[in-house]
Every structure is written in C-alpha cells, then in structure tokens.
C-alpha cells in the first residue's frame, strides 16, 4: 500500500494515456493499485508479466503500442517517483519516442490518475518506510528544466540513509519532503519557482500550491482514495468502462495503523501537513460527489432498462400469431415471451 500519484498511460479504445503518479515511497496505496492494472484488469490483450521480471509488457491489441505508463510497465522513465510537474513535461516525449516510428507521430489523450490517503496515516507510513532504510536519492525533482541545488533542497541526514530515525527526529527536519507531500506532488511547482523558497513568501507559495493541487486533482479523469477501496474500484470501472477480475480488498491493518502515537504527536503531524489536510478534505468531498453521481446515473440507466424490458414484454403479450390450419379460434395457446424471466 504505497504511492500517491502515478501515471498510468492507457490507451485502450482510442489514443488514451493513463498515468499513475508516485509509486512505492509515497505511501498512498498506488503500488497496490498499479498491480491491479497489470494483473487484475480484464482486457482483450492482458499485460504480459513474467516471473522474476519487475516490468510487464502492456500493449494494445494487435499493436506494439504501450497503453500503460507506470513503474510496472515502463519503469522509471521520467525519474524515480516523478511528480505531476515532472510527468506532464516528460511523458508525451517519452511515449512519442517509445512507440512512434521515425517521422511519424500520434495524437494522444493523456489521462492522469492518482491515489490519495489520509495525511496522518500516510505520513506515519512514510516514516516507518524511511526508518527501515528507504531513500530516494536518485529522484530528479526536475522543474523548469533542472533539478534543485543542494541549497534549495538540503538533506535531512548525513550518510547513506536515515535508518532507525525516531518520529520526533523525522518531524523536526524542516526540509523533510514528507511534509505536505501529496500537495507538492500534485501541484505545478513551476508556479512557485520550483524549489526556490525565496521566489515568493511562504504564505503566497502555500496558497498557490494548494489551489494548483486541487485544480489538477479536479481535472483528472479519475482518482481514488486508499480508505475507500471498493468505491475506488467502482469509479475506475465506470469511468473507463473496464472491469477488474477480482474485487479490491480494504486493508484496515497497516504499518501506520500499528503505530501508537499520543494526541500531541498527531496534532504535530497535522500541523506539518496542513496543506495535505485541506487537500484531503477537498478530495473526499469531490470523490463522494463523483461516486454518488455515477451511482445515480447507473440507477437511472437500470430503471430505463427495466422500463424498456416491461414495454417489450407488453408488446409481445399483445402480439397475435397468424392462424394455423385447424386453429378455429385463432388464440395463441402459449406466448414464448411470457416464459422469459423478468428483468
């Protein structure tokens, strides 16, 4: 259960490219969702996943064109755990180079999708991940054509990793990218001068980042919430007219859920992630609106189908078959449609 934004480049019926945002390190359930896309989705031509290989081959039926852009299909083509700013500037060129013959180009529609998670649980999960020795030193953090300087993006620890870090130490590092990670990874960082914190004052920067993250989330064809696995599955299937083979599982027991913190620590985490807290409230509201709207449309279609079925049954009951020899009264002894099970 890891990941926040991940670019899944899909093009299934038309030139659609679905992108899944940040994988493994971001702790939002995107890795699990990414595996669903390569191993658990019902397609005319499923992804080919070979034992011992980290990447699967996901081609459109009868073509050598990739429909899925993610760590599970194309690897880290845009850098390790690339964010929205990196991906939107990288993916089109990568896909053009990967799938198009020389002197020939495709017009593609790219659909970016993502997973979000409760900020406190996500933060604790990332802390436990770092505590076990995880690092992302090879992440590029590309923005406006360059990576940040060491002064713009200092590290929180000397040495190779931050193994064994306590929660207090993790929270005390002001440069920790775990803080408000979901907003930063969903926002257009070019709007705020990338990682240059002297580009504008902090208050203005935060306002722009949050609004940008909300806008990008709203404009995504689909996003899911880790805490609502079945609803996430339902929305994805209805949005893209696809079906998963097996239902999603809601994992209520995670590493984060096993962390026992006091109220003071929880409040501190919420303060450090105050932008993520606002984004998550916005995301939950938008998610529920989309879910209920989709449910309502489905109920309307079901009612229409039932009405149409009843209308057809009435028409068939009223139909009189032509008289046959020896049938003096012209009555039909058995109407086939009366034997059809009602919808």
TrEMBL record:
Keyword Methyltransferase carried by entry: no
Keyword Glycoprotein: yes
Keyword terms of this UniProt record: Glycoprotein, Membrane, Signal-anchor, Transferase, Transmembrane, Transmembrane helix
Major localisation: membrane
Gene Ontology molecular function: any one: heparan sulfate 6-sulfotransferase activity
Transmembrane segments: none
Enzymatic reactions: alpha-D-glucosaminyl-[heparan sulfate](n) + 3'-phosphoadenylyl sulfate = 6-sulfo-alpha-D-glucosaminyl-[heparan sulfate](n) + adenosine 3',5'-bisphosphate + H(+)
Disordered: region residues: 294-343
EC number per UniProt: 2.8.2.-
Gene Ontology cellular component list: membrane
Biased composition annotated in UniProt, kind: Basic residues: 302-320
Membrane topology: Single-pass type II membrane protein
Compartments, as annotated in UniProt: Membrane
Any Pfam family matching the protein: Sulfotransfer_2
InterPro entries: Heparan_SO4-6-sulfoTrfase, P-loop_NTPase, Sulfotransferase
Family: Belongs to the sulfotransferase 6 family.
Full protein name: Heparan-sulfate 6-O-sulfotransferase
């Amino acid at each position: 259960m890891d990941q926040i934004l991940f670019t899944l480049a899909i093009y299934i019926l038309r030139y659609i490219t679905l992108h899944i945002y940040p994988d493994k390190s971001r702790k939002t359930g995107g890795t699990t969702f990414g595996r669903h896309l390569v191993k658990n989705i019902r397609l005319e031509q499923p992804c080919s996943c070979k034992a011992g290989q980290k990447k699967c081959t996901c081609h459109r039926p009868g073509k050598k064109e990739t429909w899925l852009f993610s760590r599970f299909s194309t690897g880290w083509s845009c850098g390790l755990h690339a964010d929205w700013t990196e991906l939107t500037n990288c993916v089109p060129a990568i896909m053009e180079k990967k799938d198009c013959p020389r002197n020939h180009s495709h017009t593609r529609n790219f659909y970016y999708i993502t997973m979000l998670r409760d900020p406190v649980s996500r933060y604790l999960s990332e802390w436990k991940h770092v505590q076990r020795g995880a690092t992302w030193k090879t992440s590029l953090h590309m923005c406006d054509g360059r990576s940040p300087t060491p002064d713009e993006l200092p590290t929180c620890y000397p040495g190779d990793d931050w193994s064994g870090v306590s929660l207090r130490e993790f929270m005390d590092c002001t440069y920790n990218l775990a803080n408000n990670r979901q907003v930063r990874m969903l926002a257009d960082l070019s709007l705020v001068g990338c990682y240059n914190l002297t580009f504008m004052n902090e208050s203005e920067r935060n306002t722009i980042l949050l609004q940008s993250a909300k806008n990008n989330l709203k404009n995504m064809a689909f996003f899911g919430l880790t805490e609502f696995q079945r609803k996430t599955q339902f929305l994805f299937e209805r949005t893209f007219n696809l079906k998963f083979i097996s239902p999603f599982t809601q994992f209520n027991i995670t590493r984060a859920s096993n962390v026992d913190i006091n109220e003071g620590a929880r409040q501190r985490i919420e303060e450090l992630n105050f932008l993520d807290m606002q984004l998550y409230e916005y995301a939950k509201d938008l998610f529920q609106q989309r879910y209920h709207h989709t449910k309502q449309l489905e109920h309307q279609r079901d009612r229409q189908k039932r009405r149409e079925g009843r209308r057809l049954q009435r028409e068939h009951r009223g139909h009189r078959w032509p008289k046959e020899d020896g049938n003096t009264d012209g009555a039909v002894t058995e109407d086939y449609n009366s034997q059809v099970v009602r919808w």
